Amino acid sequence: MGLLDYIEARRLERERAIRNEKALNAVKIIASVGVGFALGVLFAPKSGKKTREDIANAAKEGLDFVSENVNNAIEVIKNKSSKLKEATTEKIGNISEKIEDIKEKSKNAKEKSDEEEKSSK
User: Fold this and answer.
1) DSSP output for 23-55
2) Are 41 and 51 in contact (CB under 8 A)?
3) DSSP, res 13
4) Dist. CA 23–CA 63, nearest whole Å
5) pLDDT by residue (tens digit) across 23-62?
6) What are the φ and ψ backbone dihedral angles of 47, each rounded to 5 degrees?
7) Averaged pLDDT for residues 79-99
8) In whole angstroms, how far apart are CA 66 and each of 24, 37, 59, 69, 70?
9) Are 113 and 105 a contacting pair, CB within 8 Å?
């Protein structure tokens, strides 16, 4: 079992190294985006006040867009859940009816069996 343990340990070590490399790459990308944004703001041809206004307006528009889409998603979810509730209630009603039918048939079959048993004695 020593060789299998060694192979498993090497595999786990490689997987850990790959995860660490992916995390490091993600951090590099985020840092690059941040540096690019900072340099863009610093060397922008507009004044600082105008740039801040543009950033504030873009943030407000983004927030409006997100809140509108969230509200739309909430409405869709409400509609889907009500339809699902109606369908589930209908299915439960159908199942209840079938159970009652089966109970009735079972009761009738038992009564018929009891009558046949009495008549054969």
Assistant:
1) HHHHHHHHHHHHHHHHHHHHT-SS-HHHHHHHH
2) yes
3) H
4) 29
5) 888 899 999 988 888 888 777 777 778 878 888 888 899 8
6) -70, 165
7) 91
8) 30, 22, 10, 5, 6
9) no
